[in-house]
Amino acid sequence: MASDPRDVLLAGARTLGLHLSDAQVDLLLAYMGWLHKWNKVYNLTALRHPDEMLSHHLMDSLTAVGPLWRHLQQVHGPSGAPASGERVPVLDVGSGGGLPGVVLAICLPQVRVTCVDTVNKKAAFIQQVAVSLRLPNLKGLHARVESVQGGFGVVTSRAFASLVDFTTWSRSALQPGGVWMAMKGKHPEAELAALDSSVEVFHVEPLQVPGLDAERCMVWMRPSTS
Q: Does residue 22 belong to any structural domain of this protein?
């Protein structure tokens, strides 16, 4: 008998130390429903089965929530938000079907996520999700990341491009003091070695995806001040 998606999601969240509300769980499952539905027509992801989407997409993206939350607390204090009360602007580059951007927007109300993609139908899907799930802190943007200028405290990506290309293309999107948060598979030795002195790698964080026997890590970077 197939496992109940809600049970799988809750168990995975507990493993990751995440405390999700019932409303957040409902939104995450509703998002997966939208992704599965639209994928039949718009080819948002190569995975077709809802169980695979849950394990390889949703659970994988959930591993980014804790690291981002800890970063926000380090920068802004216990609330994870600026004293102004505004949301922290996050850019998800090459977001595709909204991973991890939509998951971050649902799980962290302290952030305002823009999912940028060069494919118009993918940006349109994100806009549809934002409206349908009533997520005021989510938007889709059809653009090349190189054209996005400033204003983002965190620029993230998941399986998007090499670290050199990711940081080069998205540098103009970072606000002063901003950081890059790149989700990668196994420790990317060659990509790290290829970075030049304009990029400082200040942390490589191992990630464990609940239910998946696969290597993952988060590479934290910022523009070098030297």
A: no
